[in-house]
Amino acid sequence: MFAVDHVSHKFDDIIQHKIDQKTKPKGALGQLETLAKQIAQVQLSSDPKAKKLHITEPGLLVFAGDHGIAQYGVSIAPSEVTSQMVANFVHGGAAVNVFCRQMGFNLEVIDAGVLAPLGLKGVTEHRLGNGTAAIHLAPAMTLEQVKQGFKAAHEVVERHVLSGCNLIALGEMGIGNTSSAAAIMAALLEFDVNTCVGRGTGIDDKTFALKKALINEALKLHRPKLASPVHVLAYLGGFEIVQMTGAILAAAEQKILVLIDGFISTAAALVAVRLHPAARDYLVFAHESEEQGHKLMLTHLAAQPILSLGLRLGEGTGAALALPIVQAAVNFYNDMASFEDAGVVNVV
């Protein structure tokens, strides 16, 4: 469904030379230099005549979906909180709203499949169902629903690109979705559940043990059928994770940057890269969350996150907070003087 090309490396030497000739010691801007080079690779691949980098009309997409496993006590909150938080997004009261207003993100909230239709003005309805099935008892969804989710996400990203957006950030809301993300991680990386499962929003020891047990049951039940990343999504995923995966692939197909948030978004990125390895070229990882397993997924994806703030909220909050750093990388690449410009000589 997606055609994703690797970025071109034709201009790598030119890009690196430009970075190295800025008025600073080589490498002195650290990770900003790596980030600037990645952004340049992405943007020069799509527009080789471009002389400057740019971030235009950045869009943050928050996908919401409910999880059947949440009904079995794996979270501190009931599934109804998902819908309540979506209403909070619409009314502008959540952390992600605050940060999007500050950072200049265009926020869109997508109902990928919460428990019941919300009918809220300001919510894009791309529902795949009334929440997924409990993954320890049945497949989360059908393969057809995965396909529908990919198509819906493609439509959202295409609309943003047509409005001038060249950076998509991802967020999510869904009680129980750390269970689904941990199951996806365990299935794709073949890690032990104890390595993948964290405490989500702060569950106690009893709930933590139950969460690990149910995810083990899910993996045992479905493992013989996990023949591909798409099957992993169908059997273990969430409606919001499916659409985030589709959004990543759609953005990579359009050759624009994708700013990945935390644990849930990174699980979607893991699936996307397994489906189309070239998609990795377009991914910028916003932060390392407190959720157990996130660091291991980042390591597997050879990702160096921009921030480490102890975040464990989701919603795309980390992605929103990382945008100024992305813009700083763009601005130093564009506007910082070179040694020649500044008349600085005798610098090795």
UniProtKB/TrEMBL annotation:
Keyword set includes Glycosyltransferase: yes
InterPro entries, per the entry: Nict_dMeBzImd_PRibTrfase (IPR003200), Nict_dMeBzImd_PRibTrfase_bact (IPR017846), Nict_dMeBzImd_PRibTrfase_N (IPR023195), Nict_dMeBzImd_PRibTrfase_sf (IPR036087)
Pfam family for this entry, one: DBI_PRT
Domain of life where this protein originates: Bacteria
Family classification: Belongs to the CobT family.
Designated name of the protein: Nicotinate-nucleotide--dimethylbenzimidazole phosphoribosyltransferase
Protein's job: Catalyzes the synthesis of alpha-ribazole-5'-phosphate from nicotinate mononucleotide (NAMN) and 5,6-dimethylbenzimidazole (DMB).
Single GO molecular function: nicotinate-nucleotide-dimethylbenzimidazole phosphoribosyltransferase activity
Biological process (GO), any one: cobalamin biosynthetic process
Gene source species: Shewanella holmiensis
Enzyme class: transferase
Gene3D superfamilies: 1.10.1610.10, 3.40.50.10210
